[in-house]
Amino acid sequence: MIEIAICDDELADLKMISQIVGEICLNEVIDYKLTTFSSGKEMLEQTYSIDIGILDISMRELNGIDLGRELKKRFPEVKLIYVTSYEQYCKQVINTVHAFSFLTKPVKYENVRKQMIELLDNMEDDVSGRKREFYNVTTCDMKEVEVLKLDLKDILYFEYIKTERQIRIICNNNCYKFSYVMEKLTEELKDFGFEVNCRGMLVNMRHIRKVKGYVLYMDNGQELALSQKRKADFVKKINVFMNNKFN
Q1: Domain boundaries along the sequence of the chain
Q2: What is the DSSP letter of 105?
Q3: Of 3.30.450.40, 2.40.50.1020, 2.30.29.30, 1.20.950.20, which CATH number belongs to 128-246?
Q4: What's the distance, Cα to Cα, between the start and end of the chain in Å?
Q5: Of 218, 219, 215, 211, whose CA–CA distance to 236 is shortest?
Q6: 151 SS3 class
Q7: What's the burial of 147, exposed, middle or buried (CB within 10 Å: 0-12/13-18/19+)?
Q8: Can you tell me whether residue 237 is helix, strand or coil?
Q9: Continuous H helices in the chain
Q10: Which one of 89, 101, 108, 217 has the fewest CB atoms closer than 10 angstroms to its CB?
Q11: C-alpha distances in angstroms, 76 versus 10, 84, 174, 233?
């Protein structure tokens, strides 16, 4: 599922853009979730996961450029499309926050559709969003699934359950369990932004908002422990990971 968020403090523009995006997703058979916000502050307070952000540049409370910067910090892989009535801002947003593209108001269906299709094609080519299959999985409601395919970027962390000899997969809205060797999983996912934060736990670095002391603050509000002996190496790795995402 593609998670799309639109932010514009002009309610008429917000309604029009959201209707267009919704129609495009339906017509192109895109599995999507669409959320709208009328202020940048509201968007930052209520967004825990996002793939595509469509932002107005000249909002009163928090302008789209500053909002885009903050979204990039929290969600390094988010793709941004800017909407503006002032074309002189377009070069600035592309250079400042690495926007994918921009649209001028009043937005038109075909222009939005073209940008959405190009962006989705670009996302499919991005190995950071690679999917992985998990076998003989138990869902949180105790259903058995022979093969479960998940996008790695949607996984918050893995946790080994010693008493059950299984690994729990934690996502934003779901959790699963499957039998596997934690050391093997760690090795297989080390090139995809996953790092051991403490014994029996493998965390997705793209979902960490900040590290303070021996606590990891996740973008969904959870707090995870960081082992004292691993902290120095972990902080180095997360800094490298974040720098690579922005460059």
Answers
A1: 2-125, 128-246
A2: S
A3: 2.40.50.1020
A4: 26
A5: 211
A6: strand
A7: exposed
A8: helix
A9: 11-27, 40-46, 64-74, 90-97, 109-124, 182-189, 231-246
A10: 108
A11: 27, 23, 22, 21
- Which two structure tokens, joined as six digits, stand for 126? 């991005």
Residue reference for tokens 């965390």:
203
Residue-wise pLDDT tens for the chain (247 aa)?
Answer: 789 999 999 999 999 999 999 999 888 878 889 999 999 999 999 998 888 999 998 888 888 888 988 888 888 778 899 888 766 655 555 555 556 678 888 889 998 998 888 888 777 655 445 778 899 999 999 999 998 988 888 899 999 999 999 999 999 889 999 999 999 999 989 888 899 999 999 999 989 989 999 999 998 899 999 999 999 999 998 888 776 654 4
